[in-house]
């Protein structure tokens, strides 16, 4: 299947600035490839500094009218966008599988998941409440109002090319902000398809602007240097997030940073073994392990360790590796050659350090960018594979003795995005939930993200929250009003 089989109204090979589909000022383009077979899908503009400045100009000019648009009207337009995404969900899913690689059952799920944020914030747009406070004296009244922060810049990754965009765009638009988005150059077509539907939904010119570019450093610098950009939202690596954090200091921008993770998945002796294995499989191997919240280290208590490994191995061996467009495929490719080389090197080094290969451990014959689903037993916390984000279908399993050791191992990382644990003990649930240094915790659950809950991390995993009412607040400023002279 080629990209030509997708609804032609969704396939755009242009950026979008101020209501116009356009090419890069330089004329440069980026070639986009299918990771499953290497086929070229098409080309998009390789936009640079001048294009980014033009997009910020457009967002700045559109801000006054959009922020003055009533929340009910903004909600109506968001709902139009949501309805169009649902109408085109199958084409959006197939387009995503073509450029990102994950199986169709996952891309179908992501389209619905991404759309849920638009639906949620269409509803939340009407609920940006202010407050009235008890005045300090009888002649005064004190209150606060919520107003949009202004122009927003958003930089999104390739691993969830639909949902990472809607999680930022929906609350920004609901709050009354305008936005400039730079999607990943690995997966631009999914982003541009969303843009096409937003235009069809009636979102006014300049409210959303989309820059496709391989020049991440240059585009990011324009976004951080421009004082008109009042907020930057970035999902990606901790290294790049720190650079953007520093670059934003001169203009004191508000930041939302969803950065790297090193999620522990802890299984206690009293856990429901079947449920724990099922949770580990979906948490670790969803999107071929290429998620920031996936289980990066699986910690299993002594008493259940061997039984867990045996059951886990049996389930992992059931994966069908192949092109995501095939109906029976359950595990697709990784995103590029650099990823496959990194994964292979990490697995090899872990074995040289004493880890035991249970299953997998090598590239898969399905194609150049496929890696066999892998389990490593006997991993210790000091090994590189337990310290770094793997971002691939490799599960390192660590043995632990008691609660204190599990907590110590889990927290021994600069990251704090997501953690998971399985236990039937009511008291242990509270103890672990409070002791683990993470922004999100799955308790007897391997998937935790949804539109109603605040998504985000602590420590070096980032700042701010996406989803929930907190996600809307991240795109608004609180203004305090003190009224005097009341008689």
Automatic annotation (TrEMBL):
<dbReference type="InterPro" id="IPR016160">
    <property type="entry name" value="Ald_DH_CS_CYS"/>
</dbReference>
<dbReference type="GO" id="GO:0009450">
    <property type="term" value="P:gamma-aminobutyric acid catabolic process"/>
</dbReference>
<dbReference type="InterPro" id="IPR029510">
    <property type="entry name" value="Ald_DH_CS_GLU"/>
</dbReference>
<dbReference type="InterPro" id="IPR050740">
    <property type="entry name" value="Aldehyde_DH_Superfamily"/>
</dbReference>
<dbReference type="InterPro" id="IPR010102">
    <property type="entry name" value="Succ_semiAld_DH"/>
</dbReference>
<dbReference type="InterPro" id="IPR015590">
    <property type="entry name" value="Aldehyde_DH_dom"/>
</dbReference>
<protein>
    <submittedName>
        <fullName>Succinate-semialdehyde dehydrogenase (NADP(+))</fullName>
    </submittedName>
</protein>
<dbReference type="InterPro" id="IPR016162">
    <property type="entry name" value="Ald_DH_N"/>
</dbReference>
<feature type="domain" description="Aldehyde dehydrogenase">
    <location>
        <begin position="21"/>
        <end position="480"/>
    </location>
</feature>
<feature type="active site">
    <location>
        <position position="258"/>
    </location>
</feature>
<keyword id="KW-0560">Oxidoreductase</keyword>
<dbReference type="InterPro" id="IPR016161">
    <property type="entry name" value="Ald_DH/histidinol_DH"/>
</dbReference>
<dbReference type="GO" id="GO:0004777">
    <property type="term" value="F:succinate-semialdehyde dehydrogenase (NAD+) activity"/>
</dbReference>
<dbReference type="InterPro" id="IPR016163">
    <property type="entry name" value="Ald_DH_C"/>
</dbReference>
<comment type="similarity">
    <text>Belongs to the aldehyde dehydrogenase family.</text>
</comment>
<dbReference type="Pfam" id="PF00171">
    <property type="entry name" value="Aldedh"/>
</dbReference>
């Amino acid at each position: 299947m080629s990209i030509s089989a997708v609804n032609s109204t969704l396939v755009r090979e242009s950026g979008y600035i101020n209501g116009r589909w356009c090419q890069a000022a330089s004329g440069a383009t980026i070639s986009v490839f299918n990771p499953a077979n290497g086929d070229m899908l098409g080309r998009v503009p390789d936009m640079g500094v001048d294009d980014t400045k033009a997009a910020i100009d457009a967002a700045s000019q559109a801000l006054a009218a959009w922020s003055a648009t009533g929340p009910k009207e903004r909600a109506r337009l968001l709902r139009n966008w949501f309805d169009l995404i649902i109408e085109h969900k199958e084409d959006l899913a197939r387009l995503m599988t073509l450029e990102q690689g994950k199986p169709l059952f996952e891309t179908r799920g992501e389209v619905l998941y991404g759309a849920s944020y638009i639906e949620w914030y269409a509803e939340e747009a009407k609920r940006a409440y202010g407050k009235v406070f008890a005045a300090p004296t009888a002649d005064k009244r004190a209150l606060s109002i919520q107003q949009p922060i202004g122009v927003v810049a958003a930089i999104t990754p390739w691993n969830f090319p639909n949902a990472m965009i809607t999680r930022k765009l929906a609350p920004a638009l609901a709050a009354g902000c305008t936005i400039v988005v730079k999607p990943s150059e690995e997966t631009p077509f999914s982003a541009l398809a969303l843009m096409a539907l937003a235009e069809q939904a009636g979102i006014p010119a300049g409210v959303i602007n989309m820059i496709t570019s391989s020049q991440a450093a240059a585009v990011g610098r324009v976004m951080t240097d421009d004082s008109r950009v009042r907020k930057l939202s970035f999902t990606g690596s901790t290294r790049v997030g720190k650079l953007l954090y520093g670059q934003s200091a001169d203009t004191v921008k508000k930041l939302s940073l969803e950065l790297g993770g090193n999620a522990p998945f802890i299984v206690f002796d009293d856990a429901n073994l079947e449920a724990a294995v099922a949770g580990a499989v979906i948490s670790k191997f969803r999107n071929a392990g290429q998620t920031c919240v996936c289980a990066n280290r699986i910690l299993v208590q002594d008493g259940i360790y061997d039984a867990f490994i045996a059951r886990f191995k049996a389930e992992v061996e059931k994966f069908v590796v192949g092109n995501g467009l095939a109906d029976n495929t359950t595990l697709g490719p990784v995103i590029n050659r650099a990823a496959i080389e990194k994964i292979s090197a990490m697995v090899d080094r872990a074995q040289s350090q004493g880890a035991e290969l249970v299953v997998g451990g090598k590239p898969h014959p399905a194609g150049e960018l496929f890696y066999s689903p892998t389990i490593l037993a006997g991993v210790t916390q000091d090994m590189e594979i337990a310290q770094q984000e793997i971002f691939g279908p490799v599960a390192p399993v660590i043995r632990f003795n008691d609660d204190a050791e599990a907590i110590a191992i889990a927290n021994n990382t600069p990251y704090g995005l997501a953690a998971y644990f399985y236990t039937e003990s009511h008291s242990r649930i509270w103890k672990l939930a409070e002791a683990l240094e993470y922004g999100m915790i799955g308790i007897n659950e391997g998937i935790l993200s949804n539109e109603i809950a605040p998504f985000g991390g602590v420590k070096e995993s980032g700042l701010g929250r996406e989803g929930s009412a907190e996600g809307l607040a991240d795109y608004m400023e609180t203004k305090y009003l003190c009224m005097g002279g009341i008689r």
